[in-house]
Amino acid sequence: MDGSQYSVLLVDDNAGLRSGLAMILEDEGIRTTQAERGDEAIQLVHEVRFDLFVLDLNLPDMTGVNVYTHVAAEHQSPRCIFMTAEASEELIEQAMRLHPLRLLRKPFEVKLFRDVVRNAIAA
């Protein structure tokens, strides 16, 4: 799949990290939509079709697992990458039961993020 035909929803409450990751994706030619909160992400899922979801596990209003549950109600077998700097083992276990493409622990290297997304596009 050509990156320019690919759409990613990037959800993280850290504006600096979110915009930095968006720039990386856009440099790959991938359309990127950003959300700061889970409720904002869920609203976007009702309006736009996304090919990949990059979700922080800890958001101000809910967890990335909660967001994914709503996404899964709209999309069959959504592809997802979870990210976290600090999450409880219980939350990480909940996330892994959803079979994400990857769980990235922050901070992670730009190359790793780019490779994970490229692999998601190629799949």
Assembly status: single chain
CATH level-two architecture? 3-Layer(aba) Sandwich
Based on Cα principal axes, name the global outline. Answer: globular
Helix content: 40-55%
**Hey, roughly how much beta strand do the residues contain?**
15-25%
| Individual helix count | 5
Q: Mind summarizing the main beta sheet?
A: 5 strands, parallel
What CATH calls the topology is Rossmann fold
Briefly say what this structure is.
Helix content is 46%, strand content 20%.
Describe this structure in words.
With 123 residues, the chain is α/β, with parallel strands linked by helices. It has one domain (3-117): Response regulator (Rossmann fold), CATH 3.40.50.2300. 46% of the residues lie in helices and 20% in strands. The protein contains five helices and five strands. The chain has helices at 15-27, 38-47, 64-74, 89-97, 110-122, and strands at 7-11, 31-35, 52-56, 80-84, 102-105. Strands 2-1-3-4-5 form a five-stranded parallel sheet, sandwiched between helices. Helix 1 links the parallel strand 1 and strand 2 (31-35). Helix 2 (38-47) packs parallel to helix 3 (64-74). The longest helix has 13 residues, at 15-27. It is globular. The protein starts with 6 loop residues before the first strand and ends with a helix. The mean pLDDT is 93.
Tags for this entry?
5 strands, globular, alpha/beta, 5-stranded parallel β-sheet, single chain, 5 helices, 123 residues, Rossmann fold
